[in-house]
Amino acid sequence: MSDRLSGKVAIVTGGGNGVGKACALALAAEGARVVVNDLGTTAAGGGRSSEAADATVAEILAAGGQAVANYDSVAEAQGCANLVALAEKTFGPVDISSPSRALCSLARSTSPMSSTTS
Question: Quick count: other Cβ atoms within 10 Å of Cβ 12?
């Protein structure tokens, strides 16, 4: 672990898997306190589970970092408000936001491969 981001608070959406998880782990490894947000939906967008976010938090804690999980939907204003409120209550003002879930959604919606035919 490094201390380059020591004292910083980071929110990572989609932090339970893939790019989001990698971002969460990297930020924690640099000393940031991380709020891992993930709905735990399937690849098709169905269901909900706390397992993915909890697993990322467990990895961060096991490595000596600080992290907490959040399961709100950032597609809803109240979910975003809840996420920020949790970060501020737990760790203080937010310094870093890594919206990997939003970026993945945008990439899928603008990709020519994302269109479907009936």
Answer: 32
